[in-house]
Design goal:
It is a single chain. With 112 residues, the chain is α+β, with helices and mostly antiparallel strands. The protein is built from 4 helices and 4 strands. The radius of gyration is 12 Å and the shape is globular.
């Protein structure tokens, strides 16, 4: 089992999860984070730290569509190992519908 990040992270990018990760398996895109599935040790400490509840175990049915995106993007985005500021207006965008279609970017984040 591994954990994934889904579209609830897009345009929010809270990094409370990054701060508690013991193996630094998070990678930063321009407007979201992903988890590298081969680096995640399945400890689960990140899941309750995510304000928009964007982190799920891959055993959840709604996590399945996000496995490939997390695996693919974690190979090209820079690793992030410390907390940074959330995106502007993150609180207002937490529950916005259709964020992947509207905002997803495969560009790397600030750490690139």
């Amino acid at each position: 089992m591994t954990y994934i990040v889904n579209d609830k992270c897009i345009m929010c990018k809270y990094t409370d999860c990054v701060e508690v990760c013991p193996v630094d398996c998070f990678y930063e895109g321009e407007n979201m984070l992903v988890i590298h599935p081969d680096e995640c040790i399945d400890c689960g400490v990140c899941e309750p730290e995510c304000p928009p509840e964007a982190i799920l175990p891959d055993s959840e049915p709604e996590a399945q569509p996000w496995l490939k995106l997390n695996a693919d993007m974690s190979e090209i985005w820079p690793n992030i190992g410390q907390k940074i500021d959330a995106m502007p207006d993150a609180d207002a965008k937490v529950d916005e519908a259709g964020k992947f279609e509207k905002y997803f970017s495969d560009k790397p984040g600030q750490g690139a």
